[in-house]
Structures are given as C-alpha cells and as structure tokens.
Design a protein that fits this description.
With 157 residues, the chain is α+β, with helices and mostly antiparallel strands.
Length: 157
C-alpha cells in the first residue's frame, strides 16, 4: 500500500470537474481503494475522493462513525444522492484539498443515497447527522464542488 499525494486545490483542476463513472472493478481499482483508505487514515481524514488525488472517477472512501467502536469504511463507487431533507444543519468543515481552512458549512441533515459496492451491487443507505455530512462532502468532490461552495464564513489557520 502507498500514501497518495493530495495536491492543494489550486494545483488540481480536476477538483472542479464532474468525475467520470467507474465502469469496472478490477485489481488496479482495488489497489487504488486500499491506497486511498491508507492515505485517509494516515492524515486522520474521514473521507477521500478520487478527484482529490487527481483522478476523475466516481470513487470515494468514507469513515462512518469515525473513532467509535462502530466505525465503518464505505467504498463508494458511482454514488448518487436520491433524497435530501429540507432541514439543514451548520457545522464547521475542512478539506484535505484546502489545507489550513475551515468554515461553517450548511448541509442537509438527512440524505438517502445509492452507490455500488466492490461486487457491483447497488446499495441504498439513509444517513443523518455527521455521517450524512461526510457523504455529502465526498459526493460533492465527485460533482466538481468543494465545501467552500456551501460555506458561510471561512477561517484560516
């Protein structure tokens, strides 16, 4: 496994592109997923999307229930949000691609989304709170958006 480089947003134009769908899961993609997971843990992140490492594909990894006994890693292939609650919540967010900045960011309190797993099965999940926020943040990356697009006020280190 390898720790991957995460270029800053100004050095990574792919962050503003809509990523292309993943067509097949093969050995190369499985290795990339393992490297993304290792990278995410190495920098204590709760998610990492392929565009953040310069790859325009619909792939992300996310840690649900981070730092609890119920922590779970989701591998999100071609994810799509199918429902967003009208109720919004505000919370400080940051991003590995925009180091040294944080901001109060509005997100939907609850979402329902679909994604494919490593076997190509389509899975639907309903999440709320912090877990829903993590998924929205990662899916935004796959759609060429950054948390800054939802941010009310940015704070810098």
């Amino acid at each position: 496994m390898a720790i991957l480089d995460i270029p800053k947003k100004e050095d990574n134009p792919i962050l503003r592109e809509v990523a292309k769908p993943v067509k097949k899961v093969d050995k190369k993609l499985r290795k990339l997923i393992k490297d993304m997971e290792e990278t995410m843990y190495n920098i204590n992140g709760v998610g990492l999307a392929a565009p953040q490492i310069g790859l325009s594909i619909q792939l992300a990894v996310a840690r649900l229930n981070p730092e609890t006994k119920n922590e779970l890693i989701l591998v999100l292939i071609n994810p799509k949000i199918t429902y967003q609650s009208e109720e919004m919540t505000k919370m400080e967010e940051g991003c590995l691609s925009v180091p040294g900045t944080w901001g109060d960011t509005l997100r939907h309190k609850q979402i329902i989304f679909t994604y494919q797993d490593l076997k190509g099965q389509e899975i639907t999940l309903s999440l709320e709170g912090f877990n829903a926020r993590i998924i929205q943040h990662e899916i935004d990356h796959l759609n060429g958006k950054l948390y800054l697009d939802h941010c009310e006020k940015v704070h810098e280190e």
